[in-house]
Amino acid sequence: MGKFSRDKGKRGERMWAALCQEHGYDVHRTAQCRGNTGQAGDCEGLPGIHQEVKFVERLNVREALEQSRRDAAAGGSHDLPIVAHKVSRGPWTVTMHAEDFFQLYDAWARSREQG
């Protein structure tokens, strides 16, 4: 991977973290992105979510989601894998497996019934 691609990836991770912070979540790039090894997501700060961040014009969504799933499992956590992705001048999109979506939705629906 060339320097331009790495720099664009880092910029995307910072942009994603900033968007999360705008919504009140203390998300930041992980130590992995600062040169440490491991199966950490690209960003951290959303408990229970393994965040893979992609800032590319053409994304293989299945491959990126599989990477997020594989890294989350390798880390030994039960975090839900997501891919946060965007293209230049486009909005952020979050992709996840349907089963994970329904797990989140069910928890949200139960909280509304109780509240």
What does the model show?
The structure is a single chain. With 115 residues, the chain is an alpha+beta fold. Helices cover 44% and strands 19% of the residues. The chain has three helices and five strands; from the N terminus they run H-E-E-E-H-E-E-H. The chain has helices spanning 3-22, 61-74, 98-114, and strands at 28-29, 43-44, 49-55, 80-86, 93-96. The strands form two sheets. It has a three-stranded mixed beta sheet with strand order 3-4-5. Strands 1-2 form a two-stranded antiparallel sheet. The N and C termini lie far apart (49 Å).
Helix content range of the residues, please? 40-55%
* SSE string, helices as H and strands as E: HEEEHEEH
Please report the distance between the alpha carbons of the first and last residues. Answer: 49 Å
Alpha-beta classification? alpha+beta
In which order are the strands of the major sheet placed?
A: 3-4-5
- Compute the gyration radius: what is it? 15 Å
Q: Outline the biggest β-sheet.
A: 3 strands, mixed
The residue-averaged pLDDT reads 90
Number of strands: 5
- Stretches where pLDDT falls below 50 for ≥5 residues? none
Name the overall outline.
globular
Strand content: 15-25%
Continuous helix count: 3
